[in-house]
Automatic annotation (TrEMBL):
Signal peptide: none annotated. One of its GO terms (molecular function) is acyltransferase activity, transferring groups other than amino-acyl groups. PANTHER family: AMINOALKYLPHOSPHONATE N-ACETYLTRANSFERASE-RELATED (PTHR43877:SF2), AMINOALKYLPHOSPHONATE N-ACETYLTRANSFERASE-RELATED-RELATED (PTHR43877). The keyword Acyltransferase applies. Keywords: Acyltransferase, Transferase. This is GNAT family N-acetyltransferase. It comes from Halomicrobium mukohataei. InterPro entries: Acyl_CoA_acyltransferase, Bact_Acetyltransf, GNAT_dom. Residues 1-141 form the N-acetyltransferase domain. Pfam families: Acetyltransf_1. The keyword Disulfide bond does not apply.
């Protein structure tokens, strides 16, 4: 298995259907706009030549973590879940984050995502706080 940063149109064409398994309520154009975000980086886990999982991340600095890797999305192809690909990609992200001088890996997971929470718990991530938010009136552009 290998992990590669996905930067080409062809790589993104392969990644978007996997990303949309998480972002299923959004259209393809919305998901492709992630590529335009200045700090968003997309990595793909390949088993031989098959893209099996993707993770969108950014490096951030915040008061409570200084420098950390924020995972925006970590998605294993639906038909391949439960085979260790998520753990493999998460381990790679942790190693990459250390190489980038980060102290933590962090993410947000909905409270009702029992499978996701169980996965992150099994991988040693700790639930220590809450994400709080409010919706803005703007259109997000």
């Amino acid at each position: 298995m290998s992990v590669t940063e996905l930067t080409t149109d062809e790589q993104w064409d392969a990644a978007v259907p996997i990303l949309r398994q998480l972002w299923c309520h959004e259209d393809e154009a919305f998901v492709r706009e992630f590529r335009d975000e200045a700090d968003y980086r997309l990595f793909g886990l390949y088993d031989d030549d098959r893209l099996v999982a993707v993770a969108g991340v950014s490096l951030q600095r915040v008061l409570h973590h200084r420098r950390h890797v924020w995972i925006h999305d970590l998605v294993v192809d639906d038909e391949l879940r439960g085979q260790g690909y998520g753990a493999e990609l998460l381990d790679w992200i942790e190693d990459w984050g250390e190489d980038e001088g980060c102290e933590y890996v962090a993410l947000a997971c909905p409270r009702d995502n029992d499978d996701g929470l169980a996965f992150y718990d099994s991988e040693g991530l700790e639930q220590w706080g809450y994400v709080v938010e409010t919706e803005l009136d703007g259109d997000g552009n």
